[in-house]
Design goal:
Shape of chain B: globular
Number of helices of chain A: 10
Strand order of the largest sheet of chain A: 6-7-8-3-9-10
Distance between the termini of chain A: 31 Å
Strand content of chain B: under 5%
Largest interface: A-B, 30 and 22 residues
Shape of chain A: globular
Strand content of chain A: 15-25%
Order of helices and strands of chain A: EEEHEEHEHHHHEHEHEEHH
Bound molecules: adenosine-5'-triphosphate, magnesium ion
Distance between the termini of chain B: 52 Å
Radius of gyration of chain A: 18 Å
Helix content of chain B: over 70%
Largest sheet of chain A: 6 strands, mixed
Number of strands of chain B: 0
Number of helices of chain B: 12
Structural class of chain B: mainly alpha
Radius of gyration of chain B: 23 Å
Oligomer: heterodimer
Largest sheet of chain B: none
Number of strands of chain A: 10
Order of helices and strands of chain B: HHHHHHHHHHHH
């Protein structure tokens, strides 16, 4: 694997929650490929969210967690930086502008649709062409048609699926390098889920994607690479086809075929 | 005993007690409205207490309650925000929470006595400031707990989403979380205002009362509630009528503020 195709490289990574003796993640090695979709699968409690939340250091919102190892970000502007070395709030903010996150439940802010998207830009200090960038982001997130006539209405009036696409638009507006999705469709109906999946597939032209999902079909349809985790370990990582058709670990196969989990 | 029969008996008993409770409430309200309205004249609002009106009392009561709010609302909100958003449930936070709960359940007369010892006795007399301080002390814990509770209702994910978008914790709390809790906090502020505007005990021996109009807070200060308390004990008919009128006006004020609070909660978003 040439490093050129890797945007984020997780090496010998351990994570321990505050006040817990055992690490929740043990010796994780996982490359995140540029402009690809990487899926993380595994039974509940295996540490998928924990790993995802390390990638933008949102864990640091709560004190006392410990990291070990490296998570290298090979951004386009910033050369190689180990994001575990970051300490100042300002550096975290810069990191999160490059590595965005979408949550399971849609999280629209209590403000207008326009302001929801403009808010991130405002935080980033973007002043020129805000309107143009909001419009572009809404188009990129495939929600422009539904919202263009009601940009000044509250975002809370949108449907769940629309809210989720708005949240994606909000993140896309910052032109991040990586987007992290934590079960982004598990609270949505099948049609909204389809729309979000299509959108994510579209996004990878510009953005590298990591997605946590419990839905095997979703992982196999959507992703290029898949990582299977189990009880804090990364059991297997490979091309999605390989994981689903020809896994090398017995555990992976058992999980994929629904024998447990 | 047959279970169905037991069910029926309990149903009848609870309906009966509900009817009795509501009956009493209506009795009070109807008597109050009847006596209040018949005792109310236009001059009740334009005259001061010396001339048999409540103008100075209303102004005095509102002055003290508003000034107490001006201190208690920002202070209580800041404490509530600290507790919910910044304290990480530290020792200090649990001390503040407990203290605030104790203060909230302290009988208001005790707060009155405390302020009497602090601001009345040493300064040689009842004064408006003492009344304001007593009301402020009553109000702060209520505001703390409303703010704390309303912020607790804002989902964690909303904070994390703001942080994930590149916001500082401080900005996200001030610009997003508080906005999300705005209706709840405003309602809480209104209800706590309604609560202190109707209080008598904390004013009884702090600001006491004044028959004349004054804005001088170093003097005894006119109060609607203390006046009601005094007037009701006077033997003459005119005083008692004025007490009814004043009670009616006070009830209407409290009722309106409460309804406004309810209305706001119902029409969120
Ligand atoms: N804040 C926390 N403090 C302590 N332990 C935690 C915390 N959050 C999660 N854990 C533990 O860490 C482990 C991994 O949790 P995580 O949420 O990452 O699992 P997950 O794979 O995302 O599961 P799910 O599929 O249910 O979302 C679990 O054992 C969980 O109990
Ligand atoms: Mg999870």
């Amino acid at each position: 694997m040439s490093e050129k195709n890797i945007i984020m490289d997780i090496k010998n990574f351990y994570f321990t929650y505050a006040g817990v003796d055992e690490p929740s993640l043990k010796k994780i090695n996982l490359p995140v490929k540029k402009n690809k979709i990487t899926a993380m699968i595994g039974p509940s409690g295996c540490g998928k969210s924990t790993l995802l939340r390390a990638m933008n250091r949102i864990h640091d919102l709560y004190p006392g967690n410990t990291y070990e190892g490296e998570i290298n970000l090979y951004g386009s502007e910033s050369e190689n930086q180990n994001i575990l070395d970051l300490k100042k709030e300002n550096d975290f903010i810069k990191l999160r502008q490059k590595v965005g996150m979408i949550f399971q439940k849609p999280t629209p802010f209590p403000m207008s649709i326009f302001d929801n998207v403009a808010y991130g830009l405002k935080l980033a200090g973007v002043k020129d062409n805000v309107e143009g960038r909001v419009e572009k982001a809404l188009k990129d997130a495939a929600i422009w048609k539904e919202t263009k006539d009601r940009l000044n209405k509250s975002a809370l009036g949108l449907s769940g699926g629309q809210q989720q696409r708005l949240c994606i638009a909000r993140a896309v507006a910052l032109k991040p390098e990586v987007l992290l999705f934590d079960e982004p469709t598990s609270a949505l109906d099948p049609i909204s889920t389809g729309a979000i999946e299509e959108l994510i597939a579209e996004l990878k032209k510009d953005i590298s994607v990591v997605i946590v999902t419990h839905n095997m079909q979703q992982a196999s349809r959507l992703s290029d690479y898949t990582a299977f985790m189990y009880m804090g370990d990364l059991v297997e990582y490979d091309k999605t086809e390989t994981i689903f058709l020809n896994p090398s670990e017995k555990l992976t196969e058992d999980y994929i075929t629904g024998r447990f989990g | 005993m047959n279970r169905l029969l037991l069910n029926k008996i309990i149903l009848i008993l609870s309906t009966l007690s509900a009817v009795i409770g509501i009956g009493f409430l209506f009795w009070i309200l109807i008597t109050l409205s009847y006596k209040g309205i018949t005792s109310l004249h236009f001059s009740t609002f334009t005259n001061d207490l010396v001339e048999g009106g409540i103008r100075n009392l209303l102004i005095g009561q509102f002055t003290m309650a508003l000034m107490a709010s001006a201190v208690a609302v920002p202070l209580g909100m800041m404490a509530g925000i600290y507790l919910r958003e910044y304290s990480n449930n530290s020792k200090l936070a649990s001390v503040i929470r407990n203290l605030s709960d104790v203060m909230m359940s302290a009988p208001s007369i005790v707060i009155g006595v405390f302020v009497f010892a602090l601001l009345v006795a040493p300064f040689g007399g009842y004064n408006g400031w003492a009344g304001i301080v007593a009301l402020t002390i009553m109000m702060i814990p209520i505001i703390i707990s409303t703010t704390d509770n309303m912020l607790a209702l804002v989902p964690i994910e909303l904070r994390e989403a703001g942080i994930a978008l590149g916001g500082s914790k401080h900005k996200i709390i001030m610009q997003i979380v508080i906005k999300a809790a705005k209706v709840g906090i405003t309602t809480g502020v209104l209800l706590s205002f309604a609560r202190i505007i109707g209080e008598t005990a904390p004013l009884l021996f702090t600001s006491a009362n004044n028959q004349f109009f004054t804005m001088d807070l170093t003097e005894q200060f006119p109060s609607l509630t203390v006046s009601i308390y005094n007037l009701a004990t006077y033997p003459d008919e005119a005083s008692r009528e004025l007490a009814w009128a004043a009670s009616f006006v006070l009830t209407m004020i409290v009722l309106c503020i409460n309804l406004l609070g309810r209305y706001m909660t119902r029409h969120k978003k």
